[in-house]
Design goal:
CATH class: Alpha Beta
Number of domains: 1
CATH architecture: 3-Layer(aba) Sandwich
CATH superfamily: NagB/RpiA/CoA transferase-like
Largest sheet: 7 strands, mixed
Low-confidence stretches: 1-5
Radius of gyration: 16 Å
Distance between the termini: 16 Å
Structural class: alpha/beta
Oligomer: single chain
Strand content: 15-25%
Number of helices: 4
Amino acid sequence: MQVAKRSGDVLDLKRRARTAANAARAHAHKTLGDRAGLMLAQHELPIERRTDRASLSGFYPYQAEINVLPLLARLVSEGWQTALPVVMAKGAPLTFRAWAPGEPTGRGIWDIHIPLETAPELQPDVLLVPMLAFDRRGYRLGYGGGFYDRTLAELRKLKPVTAIGVAYAEQEMAEVPVSDYDEPLDWILTERGVIEPKR
């Protein structure tokens, strides 16, 4: 797939790519189901905890997203402080609140599970990023809201952060259409293992 030069062309390519990506993800989800999350949890992250209080944001699986909860549970047992993202407003970066598997959740926008409002906020050192598709350059196709791109851009101004895109292996595409504001991933993790992007 060729990357378009004009922003309107890129947006059109992204819209069309999302249709194919949704179908690929739905197929992988139907084929692998909960096994994919267990397979995911078998893989080591391609980074080390920098401090005893190192924090990592996951995501509560929504619709056909791969299930990262078994991985989060393992990371908690290894000493990571974990969190979930919270959408605060359209056009705003995400907020993160501490949460670990087994703790209570509330419901946020789109009825997604989020930590309770009483949970402390934190700025994660590592983000597990959901996506519709990815390529070997480390670019992801998101849902179109730009939440993770804005969030990563802001966090990367403040401190070193590592963005790990997480998806089914079947969600890989040859080339994700890229806009100027798209933030690249540092690593990609699928049920088959870790992918180091080549840019």
